[in-house]
Amino acid sequence: MYDLTQKKTFNNIKHWFNDIIDNIEINKVAIIIVGNKSDLSSRQITKESCDKFCEQYNLKSIETSCLKNTNVDETFNFLIEKIIKENNYKNSYGSFSIINKTNKSKAKKCCF
Which alpha helices (H) appear in the chain, and where do they start and end? Predict the structure, then answer.
């Protein structure tokens, strides 16, 4: 996850990803690049910049706002579905399904 309003956090993602590539089999883990604080207007990273990085490694990216609860559930659902598919997990009935119970009409605060 990187902060859309701080370019240095996006640059850190590039370095961390190189560390991941050097230490694990990249096709065996679920990865999504998340840009947070999409609700703020002081953006320093464009969607195109992130997409360009993700295309190099065949990664998915998503922009979120934890403050407004935008794309938070979608991010976790993507990761869960990818883990289930890649590991062929099955329950006693033979498969899993993800139920999205997001209430989009009401934003939740991220902190107590």
Answer: 7-23, 47-57, 72-87
Q: What is the CA radius of gyration of the chain?
A: 16
Long-range contacts formed by 49-54: CB under 8 A, 24+ apart = 49/10, 50/10, 53/13, 53/14
What is the H or E stretch that residue 63 is in? strand 60-63
Identify the three-state secondary structure at position 92. coil
Mind listing the domains of the chain with CATH numbers? Answer: 2-87 (3.40.50.300)
11-64 per-position pLDDT tens digit: 999 888 888 888 887 777 888 999 999 999 999 999 999 999 999 988 999 999
For residue 14, give the 3-state DSSP assignment: helix
Residue 15 corresponds to which amino acid? H
CA 40 centroid distance within chain: 18
Nearest to 67 by CA among 19, 10, 108: 108
